[in-house]
TrEMBL record, chain A:
InterPro entries: MetI-like, MetI-like_sf, Phosphate_PstC, Phosphate_Transport_Permease. Belongs to the binding-protein-dependent transport system permease family. CysTW subfamily. CDD domains: TM_PBP2. This is Phosphate transport system permease protein. Part of the binding-protein-dependent transport system for phosphate; probably responsible for the translocation of the substrate across the membrane. The keyword Nucleus does not apply. It comes from Actinoalloteichus caeruleus DSM 43889. The keyword Transmembrane applies.
From TrEMBL, chain B:
The keyword ATP-binding applies. The keyword Thylakoid does not apply. It comes from Actinoalloteichus caeruleus DSM 43889. It comes from the Bacteria. SMART domains: AAA (SM00382). Coiled coil: none annotated. This is Phosphate transport system ATP-binding protein.
Length: 301, 258
């Protein structure tokens, strides 16, 4: 009886995911067939006329992946530092208050982050961005992008806002796993004459690494799918191809869909966006599978 | 190597709770001293205060002095990390580092102390594993994780890890209580061998074990619930088990309580 229930709920989830995938695929197929350019290698996006569909995922995919990856690069070390501080260094009372505040960060609606990024952080970052561009412009990621740095609607701004948004989830998971480091492991290291940092290196980090990585991947999943905040922050279409710089703009897959939702006036046009959604769906799937693979292969069993 | 320990007027506290009262005892070098007594009498607490492991619990503190060849390990300016490097410890449950190979487990203490020379590490690894009577069993799988060994082997691995750094003293907190009788015997034989080189203090619940392995035995007891534990007497093991000077000791070892 319970076996049946468990099997049923498990099966239901699998069926649901499969159904979503199939739905996306079926809706996207007609548009993909009508597409005049290659969907995977083009960056063009003109979907107004059902008889002249030209859409490719490339530019959107770049902005999506670059924003999320940049956010992850910023958030991972900070989250690790916070988790270590809270579990290993901070007095217990302080740790509890601090952890609570971090968790509150997760409860802030993403539209608020978007407003903040658009109105406060974006303009505030302009001098830094310009400095990086002027002085480190030889480094491809800091070279001129396809939108104005002065406008602030860049991957640079968006990535930093996203980093703040995914920080709580990575921190919370990492903190929880670090707290569960077996006490006898810690004592073993201490008894060998390990300093506090050495205890962390020999016991806490090896024990918590898998949790840290999967927490980060969850954060990455969230960053890839984040819509509203990026919709506000990123500058709309510049029409120019991205320069593979952090100062590119335009839109991510999700923000593009949100931006253009009003224009879904026929099935073929809408199908182009659904095809983009399908790419996002597969991307998050791959990220999660990767997280699983890292977790199991590094735990050492 | 193999230093003597002199404990003077040791009082141990967990926050406001007075756990152990006025312990004074001496442990000669190259000998085995057993701590016995009923649960909660503070014998493990005393053991953990001998290498300053007691104080890692928040609120725990110690009064009095513990002299290692005359130098107070609680003296001003003494770094507890340094103390623990010279006084090794083996715990109740075997606790090899699960992500490390057998070799890395053994040399973990040396690595912490900054030794990088590969050849030297290999030498110490072999010598320590031989010293812990484990070499023959693991020499073909030194790169396998330590967690794959049996419980008794894991405990001997932990002993190898502890002796790899050539400590002055080896503390053992009920090292056989999680092991089967055959593994227990292997550890007891090992303790008798290690006595040639190390000063050993062992806490045990097993009075036969104390009688088998130790040269002197300290009996701890408490007067009642919530009262601090105290050292009742310490004497040669043969005398404690045949003709103790305290009535409480006799009652305990003859099985009348505890």
């Amino acid at each position: 009886m319970f076996r049946g229930l468990a099997l049923g709920s498990g099966g239901f989830v699998v069926a649901l995911i499969a159904a979503i995938g199939i739905f996306l695929l079926l809706q996207a197929l007609p548009s993909l067939q009508a597409n005049q350019v290659s969907f995977l290698t083009s960056g063009e996006w003109t979907t107004g006329d059902p008889n002249d569909m030209r859409f490719g995922i490339l530019y959107l995919l770049w902005v999506t992946v670059a924003t999320a990856a940049f956010a992850l690069v910023l958030a991972m070390p900070v989250a690790l530092g916070i988790a270590l501080f809270l579990t290993q260094y901070a007095p217990r009372a302080l740790a509890r208050v601090f952890a609570y505040i971090i968790d509150l960060l997760a409860a802030v609606p993403s539209i608020i982050f978007g407003l903040w990024g658009l109105q406060v952080l974006g303009p505030a970052l302009v001098p830094t961005a310009e400095w990086l561009n002027t002085n480190l412009g030889w480094f491809p990621l800091f070279s001129d992008g396809n939108v104005s740095i002065r406008g602030g609607g860049t991957i640079f701004t968006a990535g930093i806002v996203l980093a703040v948004m995914i920080l709580p989830i990575i921190t919370a998971i990492t903190r929880e796993i670090f707290e569960r480091t077996p006490k006898d492991q810690i004592e073993g290291a201490l008894a060998l004459g390990a300093t506090r940092w050495e205890v962390i290196r020999t016991t806490v980090l090896p024990f918590g690494r898998a949790g840290y990585v999967s927490g980060s991947m969850l954060g990455l999943g969230r960053a890839l799918g984040e819509t509203v905040a990026l919709y506000l922050i990123l500058s709309g279409a510049s029409g120019r191809a991205p320069e593979l710089s952090l100062f590119d703009g335009d839109a991510t897959i999700a923000s593009k869909i949100a931006n253009d939702a009003a224009e879904f006036n026929n099935e073929i046009s809408a199908g182009a966006y659904i095809a983009a959604g399908l790419v996002l769906f597969v991307l998050t799937f791959v990220v999660n599978a990767l997280a699983r693979w890292i977790t199991t292969s590094r735990t050492g069993k | 190597m193999a230093k003597r320990i002199d404990v003077k007027d040791l009082n141990i506290y967990y926050g406001k709770f007075h756990a152990v009262e006025n312990v004074t005892l001496s442990v000669p070098p190259r000998s085995v001293t057993a701590f016995i007594g009923p649960s909660g009498c503070g014998k493990s607490t005393v053991l953990r205060s001998l290498n300053r492991m007691h104080e890692v619990i928040p609120g725990a503190r110690v009064d009095g002095s513990v002299l290692l060849d005359g130098a107070d390990i609680y003296g001003a300016g003494v770094d507890p990390v340094e103390v623990r490097r010279t006084i090794g410890m083996v715990f109740q449950r075997p606790n090899p580092f699960p992500t490390m190979s057998i070799r890395d487990n053994v040399v973990a203490g040396l690595r912490l102390a900054g030794t990088k020379n590969r050849q030297q590490l290999d030498e110490v690894c072999e010598r320590s594993l031989r010293g812990a009577n484990l070499w023959e069993e693991v020499k073909d799988r030194l790169n396998k994780p330590g967690g794959g060994l049996s419980g008794g082997q894991q405990q001997r691995l932990c002993i190898a890890r502890a002796i790899a750094v050539q400590p002055d003293v080896l503390l053992m907190d009920e090292p056989c209580s999680a092991l089967d009788p055959i593994s227990t015997l292997a550890i007891e034989d090992l303790i008798t061998e290690l006595k040639q080189d190390f000063t050993i203090v062992i806490v045990t619940h097993n009075m036969q074990q104390a009688a088998r392995v130790s040269d002197q035995t300290a009996f701890f007891n408490l007067h009642g619930v919530g009262q601090p534990g105290r050292l009742v007497e310490i004497d040669e093991t043969s005398r404690i088990f045949s003709n103790p000077s305290q009535r409480a000791t006799e009652d305990y070892i003859s099985g009348r309580f505890g």
